[in-house]
Amino acid sequence: MKVFKKIALRVMPYLVLFAVIALVIAEPVWVSRKQTDGSGADAARLKTHIEYLAAFDAPRRSYPRIENLNRAADYIHAEFAKSSGTVSEQVYGQTMKFRNVSVMFGPTTGERIVVGAHYDSYGELPGADDNASGVAGLLELSRLLSNTKLPVTVELVAYTLEEPPFFRMQEMGSMQHAALLQYEGVRVRAMLCLEMIGYFSNKAHSQDFPAPGMGAVYPTTGNFIAVVGSMTEIGLVRRVKKDMLAASDLPVRSINAPAGLPGIDFSDHLSYWEHGFPAVMITDTSFYRNKNYHHPGDIPSTLDYTRMAKVVGDVYAAIQELANN
User: Fold this and answer.
1) Any idea what the CATH number is for the domain that residue 151 is in?
2) DSSP class of residue 147?
3) Which DSSP string corresponds to 258-290?
């Protein structure tokens, strides 16, 4: 009995440390949950947008096929123009011209909330989840925000050139946008990056992780959406997670971790971190769940539009809370 007691005393500090680390990383919150999505996000509209952007017979949205990128940018611009917001473009590049397309709601000055997603795809692949799903989310948010009174500016931005060979380089559309905000002295209250928001699974062990042991803290069934931030964004991650949880019955998980953990900075929020702005990523966890990532199988029929609509509705609720509080 004494031997077991000694072992327990030795192990206990490690168990306590693990529990503390798990609490910091996973950011548990408790809120009153809605049983359904009441935001008005439309699953059919999301599907229509993705089917257009990732159609089998459509030219792929990849560099250096500039005509294809322009085709996608034209579609986004036209959809944004149907809203009550002000549409604009940031054009950059020397030998080739690339376009970020944005729409602004609310006041024209003061603090700003930025919500962004990249519209380019990897190689000659359809990129339904990566990242037509994020762009579709932006387009649906533009419809929802058209009838929303906002005390601060909300800017929705569709970026180009997130995919290799430009990832982490100044040519990324989000790097260009973040640099412009910094140059203009815009105060960014929060940036929300929509990166792959449409793939869900109810199968056991359908969720993978970037590090061993994470399955002890997070579900191993890929039926949730995740809010991802660095160790300096604990407050923002917690706030966005809480607001999203309160908006529908969709499971929402979160993680705060160093950028060195694979996947933590794998999207456009990285650009805002590098320019000193608070930013988080909202994601279905990409290749840790969706095995069609950067493969020909990333097609519209593999996505769950009902749950994607809940993600968009949850983000819409988070935007309103961030804007009003």
Assistant:
1) 3.40.630.10
2) T
3) -TTSTTTT-STHHHHHHTT--EEEEES-GGGT-
| pTM, two decimal places | 0.91
Bridge partner list, 102: 88, 157
pLDDT in tens, the chain (325 residues): 554 444 434 433 333 333 334 444 565 655 555 555 556 899 999 999 999 999 866 668 998 889 999 999 999 999 999 999 999 999 999 989 999 999 999 999 999 999 999 999 998 899 999 999 999 999 999 999 999 999 999 999 999 999 999 999 999 999 999 999 999 999 999 999 999 999 999 999 999 999 999 999 999 999 999 999 999 999 999 999 999 999 999 999 999 999 999 999 999 999 999 999 999 999 999 999 999 999 999 999 999 999 999 999 999 999 999 999 8
Length of the chain: 325
320, two tokens = 């309103």
Number of structural domains, the chain? Answer: 1
Quote the domain boundaries for residue 202: 2-324
Residues 6+ apart with CB under 8 A from 114: 154, 155, 157, 177, 181, 188, 190, 191, 192, 272, 277
- Compute the distance between CA of residue 24 and CA of residue 104 in angstroms, rounded to an integer: 34
Phi then psi for residue 225, to 5 deg, are -105, 150
Q: Exposed, middle or buried, 51 (CB in 10 Å: 0-12/13-18/19+)?
A: middle
Contacts of 314 (CB under 8 A, 6+ apart): 37, 39, 225, 243, 244, 245, 247, 248, 250, 252
Sort 70 into a burial class: Cβ within 10 Å, 0-12 / 13-18 / 19+.
middle
What's CA 278's distance to the chain center, in Å? 14
